[in-house]
């Protein structure tokens, strides 16, 4: 059992507030990802959990115990650093065994634990090497190995993949997901890469300016973003935003007037709206459909053919709209295209940037990564 | 090798006006030659007095004050006499004890100080460092009287302990400052990883910081040893016979009876020999340490 609660955590460096009141619940064996743009406070938040930084106010509770005043090594956590932070003057084995050496674990036992971790991470042939004789991916694995041997209740990962090249990153992502399954430990992972967040998380915490914007499963964040920031941050390419007029708001949804004169009804709760409310329509590029009868129209400015997909950058009056279309579309640059969307896929944001609650819950919104894998014995227990 | 290298660009880019390339090469060559000549000249100017001193040590007293000449019959007469007349060994032992003792003590104080300044800086850290360095600008003679009186009252005059204390205080600003710059270059992550692994601050310093900044610590220590070894002002004023190091030994050769150049040179050569050998053996380490931050 390893759980973590953050209660009204704040952190200020002098005059600047880096974290402004974060509440969070991390459940046992959950893979939680903190994601946000750089400077949002995600790394600071993790460092506070680790004990490398003190919280200005609020409680950090691990397994039901308040840990604010407990030293980093005694919180039962292990951390993998962005720079790996391996000890350059020690061999791989000594790197992994350092914590046990400090804890005065007998040599034989130490070696056994290191070997066990090395086996999981396929590091056995490298145990006698120094870090500088290892590749980036191997160093990364040593850093993870150093965490594993400590047998922590919670693993902390601080942007562990950002120093790796793209191909290796994909591979390590898969390895980390596997590792989570194999160790069945609680993991907290910091990244600025929303793809890492989407692919690995059971629960994503979107941070912005030191505040939690939304907490939820990847699919929940994708399909039901709470506000404009989350909508824009999760998903790639970015969601399109268009200013629209309000026609009516009733039980069936919100009727909107699109740029270009068309109308449509979005199934969202508009009961809070007044007649002169400003509204913004948000649609993901992959939900815009090329359609000769569609209500929207614009001129193609740039075409990016990826083979399987084609991105169209379409000028619509003042704004630029991205459309992800089929790889085989025959359109050319400077052509005028018409396109539309399924109203159920659209999001509406009010003047404060808050999403109007959707009237329909997406069927996959509650799905976690855990549900994606084949049920094993451990899950059925 | 060089011809092949110079030819290649010419053949590859025949269209480029040929005049620019040779002149560029020529000017680079002249520059290099100039720098080499300058370097050697400076080195010779610096080295000449030492060379002349060593030479004079092997002359007879008469030859030493005669017209300067490179041609003479070398003799160990001066060395013999210097050795017979004085106890070189006891002075040398004092020098070794005082230089290394003060260096160890300085490192012992400076490592924790530099650690806290490098890794736990406050708003005043920079100011403190500058203030420490500024104490080096005070002429030592300005504090001679109070220190002499204090030493007299607590019985530290003419003791090695007293000299070690003075040298430690004298070198501390430089030692702290140097260690601070070395520690600052150390990635903080590694120490934090150590803390996550359960290292206490002392273990962090012993197992991680010191092994990783060893070249820096070594060159700092070496500099401190050399500075202490060469120090003359305090040793002449605070010691007489018991704790007098080699600097006092050399000074004793400028006696009221007059200067004995050959003997003075022989004694000086013996005084600088140990530190010269030490410096020569560790010069690689030394240069690496002193340019650590710059060329990394």
UniProtKB/TrEMBL annotation, chain A:
SUPFAM superfamilies recorded: MOP-like, P-loop containing nucleoside triphosphate hydrolases
Ranges of residues in domain ABC transporter: 4-234
GO CC terms: ATP-binding cassette (ABC) transporter complex, substrate-binding subunit-containing; maltose transport complex
Keywords: ATP-binding, Cell inner membrane, Cell membrane, Membrane, Nucleotide-binding, Sugar transport, Transport
Pfam families per record: ABC_tran, OB_MalK
One example GO MF annotation: ATP hydrolysis activity
Protein name per the record: Multiple sugar transport system ATP-binding protein
Organism per entry: Halomonas ventosae
UniProtKB/TrEMBL annotation, chain B:
Keyword Membrane attached: yes
Gene3D superfamilies for the chain: MetI-like
Topology within the bilayer: Multi-pass membrane protein
A Pfam entry, by short name: BPD_transp_1
Family: Belongs to the binding-protein-dependent transport system permease family. MalFG subfamily.
Subcellular location: Cell membrane
Predominant location: membrane
Keywords of this entry: Cell membrane, Membrane, Transmembrane, Transmembrane helix, Transport
Annotated protein name in UniProt: Sorbitol ABC transporter membrane protein /mannitol ABC transporter membrane protein
Transmembrane intervals: 33-55, 91-117, 129-151, 163-183, 204-229, 260-281
Keyword S-adenosyl-L-methionine included in the entry's annotation: no
Species per Swiss-Prot/TrEMBL record: Halomonas ventosae
Domain of life: Bacteria
GO biological process entries: transmembrane transport
One cellular-component annotation, GO: plasma membrane
Sequence ranges assigned to domain ABC transmembrane type-1 in this UniProt record: 92-282
InterPro entries according to UniProt: BP-dep_ABC_trans_perm (IPR050901), MetI-like (IPR000515), MetI-like_sf (IPR035906)
